[in-house]
Each structure stands twice: as C-alpha cells, then as structure tokens.
Amino acid sequence: MIFGYVRPFSQDKDLYLQLNILEKYGCDKIFKEQTSSAKNRPELERMLNTLNSGDQVIVYKLYSIADTTRHLIDLVQMMQQKNVDFISIMDQVDTSTEKGKIFFKLIEKVGDFQHDVLSESTKAGISEAKLKGKTGGRPRKPDHNVRRALDMYQSKKYSIAQITAETGISKTTLYRYLEDRMVDDKS
C-alpha cells in the first residue's frame, strides 16, 4: 500500500497543497495531523503501526515527517527494517532507488557527526567548568536548614508541607537526606 503523511506548518496551516500532491501521487491512505506539534503526533504513530513489508510512505517534504535529523534517521531506519520504502516528493528522495539509499547513508553520517560534535562540546564544557571549580547541578542547601528540617521531621510535630515551607527544602530533598541518614545509621 502507498501511505501518505501530512501535517500543517506555521506558514501552511491549510493542508491543501500537501494533500493535493499526495493524492496525485496515488496514495491509498493519507494520515493527516491536525497540529504541527513535534511531540504529539497520533497520526504518525497510527501510520507507523500500520506499515507492512512492501508498503511505501510518501511525504511532501522531509520536514513533513521529522523535526530533526536524528528523528528522520530513526524513522527511515525503522521503515527499512520493515522493508518499507520512503519517498519525499519535493526533496526527490526515494529509498527504493540507489540514489535514495546513498542519500540516507549520508544523512546517517551527518547525524552521527552532529551527535559526536555535541557530545564532545558537552564533555569539553564540563571539563572546563570543573577546572574553574564549578560542579554543576543545583547548589546545596545550607547545613543549618538541612539539620533543622531533619530535626523537625524527627520531632513528629510538623507535617512535610510545614517543614518544606519553613526550611526551603523540598520534599524530595528532605526524603533524600532522611534516606542518607538511615544508611549512615546502619553503618
């Protein structure tokens, strides 16, 4: 089967252009998103769950289906595992052709490169921060606030809400300190 997928873009709220082109391409079924959201795409999920070996997925442009290079790579790899061809009409990409396969190998390499650059930049930034004495994460709460919160908890006279309001220590942080204290007591 030939499946089409469309979703609106900020400048193209009307799906008319995309739908018109996909219908001319001979799609058996077109999955239409109602919003341009990157996170909530129920029609994409429905389409992906419908795919079988030998099917084709057709989109107007690459950004119709993916918001990032990594997302595009993951989608196409999943389709390739299911033996499904992917076609982007305006980008002239067709994974059933040798040219399309080479294009996606190149996209995968670019995606890997982007990941490596980001990873190395992050590591370098963390190393530089450590050299400057910065440790990252949230600053620790003052010891007197922690002791006070623990004492209030131990007294059993205060609710968790009262303790957090009085000391500025969150419920999660309080429980973490209590857990640490129990481990120390057992040692």
UniProtKB/TrEMBL annotation:
Residues 1-133 form the Resolvase/invertase-type recombinase catalytic domain. The keyword Oxidoreductase does not apply. SUPFAM superfamilies: Homeodomain-like (SSF46689), Resolvase-like (SSF53041). Keywords: DNA recombination, DNA-binding. The keyword Cytoplasm does not apply. GO terms for molecular function: DNA binding; DNA strand exchange activity. Pfam families: HTH_7, Resolvase. Belongs to the site-specific recombinase resolvase family. PANTHER family: DNA-INVERTASE FROM LAMBDOID PROPHAGE (PTHR30461), SERINE RECOMBINASE PINE-RELATED (PTHR30461:SF2). This is Recombinase family protein.
